[in-house]
Structures are given as structure tokens and as C-alpha cells.
Design brief:
12 strands; alpha/beta; two-stranded antiparallel ribbon; Rossmann fold; 8 helices
Length: 290
């Protein structure tokens, strides 16, 4: 952790809905006039798109069918650890961009599925903002989570996460259902061993729970809407959280445990800003005092 150069990380698996959280952070940063250095988790994948396909085939031929982007072997987690540590010391770090599609790749005159060159993040930023798979990762050798001042988990229940991924990958990426399901099954060991444990290290978790039947996610025709769901917000340390204020501002919310609030799904954006804004301003106040 760094008082002078704070780090915020949003962690969640593919299809978890971290984009909604990122949009809320954009609003907070703009409103509070904060300049953030942004790191994307995809930038720290070990392989580009073609190399990943070759590596998967090679490992499958050797009998390893569970090699995935969720696991440490497919990522440069030591480099991510070093980037966070570097930012905490000097307010800058090495990063790059993964170019997902033609639109992203065009300005760089590169092929989709490749990385831009490594370069330093911008000077004069107020904080570092990370969004990706491994913001709270830790094992015996690497501990990314120790550098982060505010850790947020985005964790829809698993059936909803699968529905979101199925619809996104079929609609936006043109993948077949068979291909998507194969990816889910391949990722499951890494999901259990390397993604789920991170949500026990976060400071706040936002878990969307549908209020409609999602018992068979593989036949769902629609993604449950915000109004068809609740959001369970869990605070690792509830001390200092103004629960009466939150309950009064978030109509229809209630406390389900001493450190949990249940909020109507349509209020998630408002809840994010009400909860996270004072946390971010506290980090900025400590930064100024330092």
C-alpha cells in the first residue's frame, strides 16, 4: 500500500459485469477532478491471441485441459506485482494494452489480439486504477493484493455470470454456445483455485443476485435486468460505514447481516457512488497530508 500513490483495484472474472463498476468510477473521477492511471488486467496476459491458442493445443495434447486465462501460468503476475509496487513508490509503472478487436487495433496499425509495446504510465496521476482478473491475487511467491489500498470485488452468482458470458460472447464475439461452454469448463479449476479466493481479500464486494429463475443458464434467452435482481454489498470491515445514511438513500434496501446490505439492482450505480466516493476521498486526503 502507498499513501502518496494509492492504488484501487476492481477484480472479477470474465462476464462478471465489471464494466458497470468502471462507469461509476469514471463518474467519480470526473466529478472529483481526479486523474487516474488505468491498467487493464488483459495487458498482463502472457500470450497474445494466436500464441494462447497454440499453447492451449500444446497443453491439451499433453493431457492438460484446464489451462486458462484465469490461472497464473497464462499471466505475468510477477510483472503485475512489480507494476503495483513501482507505482506505489514513484507514481508511474510499466503497462501496455491488449487490442481486442479491429476498432481497438486500427489506431496502432496492429492486428487484433496483440499487445501494444510496454511503456510507462502517464506522469502526474492521482492514483492507479486496475480492472481485471487478478487485482487481489496472492500465492506463496506473489502477492498483488498487498499493494492495493481499495479492493473491490464484482461477483454475480455463478449462473448469472454464465448467462452474461453466454450472451456477450455469442452476440458480440460470434462464438458458438458449444465453444463458450467448453471455455467455462476449462476455466473451472482456475476459477475455484485462483479467482474465488480473491473475494475474501477485497474490502467491498458487489454481488448481483437475480430474482428470476436462472436454474438452467444454458437456455436463458435474456440476461436478467437490473430491476430483476438484487445486489448484495459486503464490507470486510463495517467500522466507519454509515449504514443509516446508506439505508435512507437507497430506497428498498435493508441490512441482511451486520456487514451486508441488500440493494435493489437498479440502485447499484447509486450505491457504488455513495459507498466508494468517501473511500476514494479518504485516500486523497491521506495523499495530500503525506
Amino acid at each position: 500500500m502507498s499513501v502518496k500513490h494509492p492504488i484501487i483495484a476492481v477484480t472479477g472474472s470474465s462476464g462478471a459485469g465489471t464494466t458497470t463498476v468502471m462507469r461509476s468510477f469514471d463518474h467519480i473521477f470526473r466529478r472529483e477532478k481526479l486523474k487516474a492511471a488505468v491498467i487493464e488486467g488483459d495487458a498482463f496476459h502472457r500470450f497474445d491471441r494466436l500464441a494462447m491458442k497454440r499453447e492451449m493445443k500444446s497443453r491439451e495434447a499433453a493431457g492438460q485441459r484446464d489451462f486458462s486465462h484465469f490461472g497464473p501460468e497464462a499471466n505475468l503476475l510477477a510483472d503485475l506485482d512489480a507494476a503495483f509496487a513501482d507505482y506505489g513508490v514513484r507514481g508511474r509503472c510499466k503497462t501496455r494494452h491488449y487490442l481486442h478487436d479491429v476498432e481497438e487495433a486500427a489506431p496502432h496499425a496492429q492486428e487484433p489480439g496483440t499487445f501494444t509495446p510496454w511503456r510507462d504510465s502517464a506522469d502526474g496521476t492521482d492514483l492507479l486504477f486496475y480492472e481485471g482478473l487478478h487485482g487481489a491475487y496472492a500465492d506463496e511467491q506473489i502477492n498483488v493484493a498487498r499493494h492495493v489500498d481499495l479492493l473491490i470485488g464484482v461477483v454475480p452468482i455463478i449462473n448469472l455470470e454464465w448467462i452474461q458470458k453466454l450472451h456477450r460472447d455469442k452476440t458480440l464475439r460470434g462464438h458458438s454456445q458449444e465453444m463458450i461452454v467448453d471455455t467455462m469448463l476449462r476455466r473451472m479449476p482456475d476459477y475455484v483455485n485462483h479467482i474465488c479466493p480473491q473475494f475474501s481479500r477485497t474490502h467491498v464486494n458487489f454481488q448481483r443476485v437475480p430474482t428470476v429463475d436462472t436454474s438452467n443458464p444454458f437456455i436463458a434467452r435474456d440476461v436478467p435486468t437490473a430491476d430483476e435482481s438484487m445486489v448484495i454489498i459486503r464490507f470486510a470491515d463495517p467500522h466507519g460505514i454509515d449504514f443509516p445514511y446508506l439505508l435512507s438513500m437507497l430506497d428498498g434496501s435493508w441490512m441482511s447481516r451486520p456487514n451486508n446490505i441488500a440493494v435493489p439492482g437498479g440502485k447499484m450505480g447509486l450505491a457504488l457512488q455513495l459507498i466508494l466516493t468517501p473511500m476514494i476521498l479518504r485516500l486523497m486526503d491521506l495523499k495530500r497530508r503525506a
